[in-house]
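Tokens in:
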């Protein structure tokens, strides 16, 4: 397994300039769709019921990157620098666009889910580049991979470059979406459900295109990436739930925080990876891209699975 993962570090994926443009437009479209459902009341709910919201933000933006850093560092030479950095990049991203839907299926607190999505969408503009730069550079400075000296220099993370990209593909669509929603409510109501469905379909198609363009590599290495993402995602979901429990939240809120922590915007991670301003495109980022791409598939599978389990059981008394 170790040798196979080391091979991934040398891979430069097949993804051209047209693909990068399509990726950026897709993420921007998804964020526009999310913003159409955001209202000022969603942010007010964070103030009216601060404890669950605080715990959710704590779990998603502090504990999730910290947990990921600990996992990557503990694995040492078992994984490679780009695998570890890919895990940290995904963990630094805001919640995924399907978290509200999955929270609803799981009979979670949908209002809390929407509120956390509102915060993570805007807060991620600052917290994503900060977390990625802080934890990523700390991971690299540890030198946990003894044979990584040539990659350590190339993988230094510039938070400003990350921020510029996020503002372009997250910030502008969010502002535009909130503007359209507030100024044209009837039009928004007519299109929002279609945009949500279309954005999920386009995102799945995008992941499919990336895998199809690198199909032989996917078949060769998926068995190793699968296990890493499965464990990482499972620990994220468990940590989110247990964090809610540690703060005395009810079962419904715990489910929501678990989902918000375990469903990450891996599409944004891919957009950053394939942005030449952030990562030079002659750099071997195969491990990071494989982690981000497969996370985009797996978190939907795991989210729907846990939602089916939770949605089918009722707990009359919260612990």
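Residues out:
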């Amino acid at each position: 397994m170790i040798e196979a993962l080391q091979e991934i570090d040398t891979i430069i994926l097949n993804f051209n300039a047209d693909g990068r443009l399509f990726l950026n437009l897709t993420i921007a479209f998804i964020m526009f769709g999310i913003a159409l459902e955001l209202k000022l009341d969603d942010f007010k709910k964070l103030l009216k019921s601060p404890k669950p919201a605080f715990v959710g933000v704590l779990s998603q933006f502090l504990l999730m990157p910290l947990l990921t850093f600990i996992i990557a560092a503990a694995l040492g030479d078992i994984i490679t620098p780009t695998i570890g950095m890919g895990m940290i990049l995904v963990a630094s991203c805001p919640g995924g666009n399907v978290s509200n839907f999955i929270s609803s299926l799981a009979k979670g607190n949908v209002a809390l889910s929407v509120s956390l999505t509102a915060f993570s969408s805007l807060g991620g503009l600052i917290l994503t580049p900060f977390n990625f730069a802080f934890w990523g550079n700390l991971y690299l400075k540890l030198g946990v991979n003894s044979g990584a000296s040539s990659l350590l220099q190339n993988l230094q993370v510039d938070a400003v470059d990350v921020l510029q990209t996020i503002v372009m593909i997250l910030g502008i669509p969010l502002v535009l979406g909130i503007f359209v929603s507030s100024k044209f409510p009837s039009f928004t109501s007519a299109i929002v459900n279609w945009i949500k469905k279309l954005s999920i379909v386009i995102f799945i198609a995008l992941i499919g295109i990336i895998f199809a363009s690198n199909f032989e590599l996917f078949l060769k290495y998926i068995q190793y990436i699968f296990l890493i993402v499965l464990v990482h995602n499972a620990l994220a979901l468990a940590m989110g739930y247990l964090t809610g429990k540690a703060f005395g939240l009810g079962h419904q809120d715990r489910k929501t925080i678990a989902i918000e922590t375990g469903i990450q915007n891996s599409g944004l991670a891919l957009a950053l990876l394939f942005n030449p301003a952030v990562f030079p495109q002659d750099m071997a980022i195969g491990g990071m891209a494989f982690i981000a791409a497969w996370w985009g598939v797996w978190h939907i599978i795991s989210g729907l699975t846990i939602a089916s389990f939770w949605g089918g059981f009722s707990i009359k008394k919260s612990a």
